[in-house]
């Protein structure tokens, strides 16, 4: 079976630690209300000043929370054909790294949204072929480290984005499947288990991961 690179394990564990810290510092509805009010009072550039009114929150925390979650100008809906065409043009012009710059040309969209839209839907290099058994085993190995943190697992798989692997399987089936495969030493036996589970998948969809789970490389 595929073994994990020690560096990959360290990086994965670091990502998990960061996620845990974010969960510990979730914003309350009252904080959101205060932040929106403070931005209305002081503007969108006085983040240090605004943070002074919100105990435990840094200027960076406040800026990120407002621009990514609370900004009333932020568009959170489906991308239009015109937006997609514009994004393709902008990536051609600026490349696929300068997302903040690209977002400035797409009103209501943030850099993260542009990045996710490109990598999950528009990037022609994203793998769209069926999963191989070897990929299944690799995912299982990473799952043993991270559990169902598909976004973190995405960073260590071939291709520019994590492709949807668990479509058609309920959580309990996935867990049972992974436990069965991860505990066998014979690769051929593992492959047979994979084949058995695949038979239960009646409608395998394209291997793209929904935007909310995407993590750029």
TrEMBL record:
The name under which this protein is listed is Myb-related protein B
**CDD domains referenced in this protein's UniProt entry, alphabetically:** SANT (cd00167)
Domain HTH myb-type span(s) in chain numbering = 19-70, 71-126, 128-159
Reading the lineage from the top rank, the first entry is Eukaryota
**Keyword annotations from UniProtKB, A to Z:** DNA-binding, Nucleus, Repeat, Transcription, Transcription regulation
User: Which Gene Ontology biological process is one annotated for this entry?
Assistant: snRNA transcription by RNA polymerase III
Molecular functions per Gene Ontology: RNA polymerase II cis-regulatory region sequence-specific DNA binding; RNA polymerase III type 3 promoter sequence-specific DNA binding
Q: Where are the transmembrane segments?
A: none
Give the UniProt entry's GO cellular component terms.
nucleus; snRNA-activating protein complex
Where does the record place the Myb-like domain? 19-70, 71-122, 123-159
């Amino acid at each position: 079976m595929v073994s994990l690179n020690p560096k990959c394990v360290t990086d994965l564990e670091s990502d998990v630690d960061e996620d845990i810290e974010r969960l510990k510092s979730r914003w309350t509805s009252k904080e959101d209300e205060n932040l929106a009010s403070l931005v209305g009072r002081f503007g969108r550039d006085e983040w240090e000043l605004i943070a002074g009114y919100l105990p435990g929150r840094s200027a960076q925390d406040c800026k990120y929370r407002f621009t990514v979650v609370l900004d009333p100008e932020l568009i959170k809906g489906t991308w239009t054909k015109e937006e997609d065409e514009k994004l393709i043009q902008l990536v051609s012009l600026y490349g696929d790294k300068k997302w903040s710059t690209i977002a400035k040309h797409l009103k209501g969209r943030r850099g993260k949204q542009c990045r996710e839209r490109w990598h999950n839907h528009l990037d022609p290099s994203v793998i769209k072929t069926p999963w191989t058994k070897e990929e299944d085993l690799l995912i299982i190995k990473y799952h043993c480290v991270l559990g169902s943190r598909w976004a973190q697992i995405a960073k260590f798989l071939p291709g520019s984005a994590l492709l949807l692997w668990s479509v058609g399987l309920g959580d309990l089936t996935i867990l049972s499947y992974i436990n069965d495969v991860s505990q066998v030493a014979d690769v051929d036996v593992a492959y047979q288990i994979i084949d058995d589970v695949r038979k239960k998948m009646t409608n395998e969809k394209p291997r793209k991961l929904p935007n909310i789970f995407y993590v750029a490389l």
